[in-house]
Design brief:
- This is MarR family transcriptional regulator.
- This protein has about 140 residues and is mostly helical.
- It has helices at about 10-35, 40-50, 60-65, 70-80, 105-125, 130-140; strands at about 55, 85-90, 100-105.
- Helix content is about 70%, strand content about 10%.
- The N and C termini lie close together (about 5 Å).
- About 15% of the residues are buried.
- The model has no long low-confidence stretch (mean pLDDT about 90).
């Protein structure tokens, strides 16, 4: 790092965090408006789609999405309550205490549509001159 100013590293971190918050807010808004998905729900669909057999134990999923066990359980329950058929939960045969969450065909379709929206939103966000300038400034510090 080039700067010797003691608080520069913290300032740079806060600038980077601000960019992330702005982009996440934009993603959250457009996903809600276009697909009736929260960003966390999008992450659930995405991680399930990348998993073997398109299923994960609830504990694995909560670690990947960054939620507590109860918050992850509520998120999956809300997903199921929507009645859109994107997820299916079932008990693990080997360990009856574990619960698997699996992506359905309907969930895959919803994810494919949402991915297109996320790509467009990210392209738009990263094309923003203010974000580009701030990222360029931050990267030049290292």
């Amino acid at each position: 790092m080039k700067s010797n100013e003691p608080n520069q590293l913290i300032s740079d971190w806060m600038s980077l965090a601000n960019i992330q918050i702005r982009v996440e807010h934009e993603l959250e808004s457009i996903l809600q408006e276009t697909h009736q998905l929260t960003l966390k729900e999008f992450y659930v669909l995405l991680f399930l789609s990348q998993a073997p057999n398109k299923k994960l134990k609830l504990q694995q999923l909560q670690n990947m999405v960054g939620l507590s066990q109860s918050a992850m359980s509520r998120l999956v329950s809300r997903f199921e309550a929507k009645g859109c058929g994107t997820l299916r939960r079932h008990v693990c045969v080997e360990d009856r205490r574990a619960i698997f969450t699996a992506l359905t065909e309907s969930g895959e379709k919803k994810l494919e549509e949402a991915i297109q929206t996320v790509h467009q939103t990210l392209q738009h966000s990263f094309a923003d001159k203010g974000i580009q300038a701030e990222l360029k400034r931050l990267l030049s510090q290292f």
